[in-house]
Amino acid sequence: MPKRSTAEIAREWGSILLGAAVYTIGYRFFFYPNGIVPGGVTGISTIINFLTGLPVGVMSMALNIPLFAFAWRHFGLRFMLMSLAGTALTYILVDLAAGFGFAATENILLAATIGAALNGMGLGIIYRTGATTGGSDIIAKVLRQKYPYINFGTIVMGVNLVIFAAYGVIFRRWDAVMYTIIAQFVV
Q1: Spatial contact of 187 and 126, defined as CB atoms under 8 Å apart
Q2: I need a labelling partner for 125 at 20 to 30 A (CA). Which of 14, 21, 117, 161 fits?
Q3: From CA 108, how far away is CA 89, in angstroms rounded?
């Protein structure tokens, strides 16, 4: 494998930071204040936050620990370190942005679509570096290795539908669940 320049490495890490920041804006200023639950570990952490008040970022990192241990064995050190950076930066920014208490809109449809577009852009920027933000992405990547004929997005959507259904059952906010599903397709 050719040696990478310092500029290439800096660009890669800068992309991860940019992706984390864009994701955070979509989540914290559009999704969260409107009760829209993202998928994956962040969705589970959001539900826990709504129930207990525990910080979303801290919960997400805790839930990701066993997944990263699993990923290390399957995908190697570089993938794990890059994904750990993507995950840590995202959730640090998510918890820091909680202090703003700002909602970009109270229109739930706008929140679902604009927040999802920002989430998707942020994740896409991170994915282009070869990293992920952990969670269901790791599960999908492993399942995709074993079942390459199943689309990555289909696996992620299946996991997320379970999370969205749990949100609906727990909080009886079926309107928010429907907007969450719209947001997931936009992402």
Answers
A1: no
A2: 161
A3: 27
Letter string b/e over residues 129-158, b meaning 16 or more CB atoms within 10 A of that residue's CB: bebbbbbbbbbbbbbbeeeeeeeeeebbbe
187 three-class SS: coil
| Cβ–Cβ < 8 Å for 31, 73 | no
155: its two tokens? 């696996």
Residue (of 170, 173, 147) closest to 158 by Cα position: 147
CA–CA distances in Å: residue 13 to residues 20, 52, 65, 136: 11, 33, 21, 22
Claim: this prediction has a pTM higher than 0.70:
yes
Question: Mind giving me the DSSP string for 58-105?
Answer: HHHHHHHHHHHHHHHHHHHHHHHHHHHHHHHHHHHHHHHHGGG---S-
Determine the average pLDDT of the residues in 18-39.
94
Indicate if the pLDDT at residue 44 is higher than 90.
yes
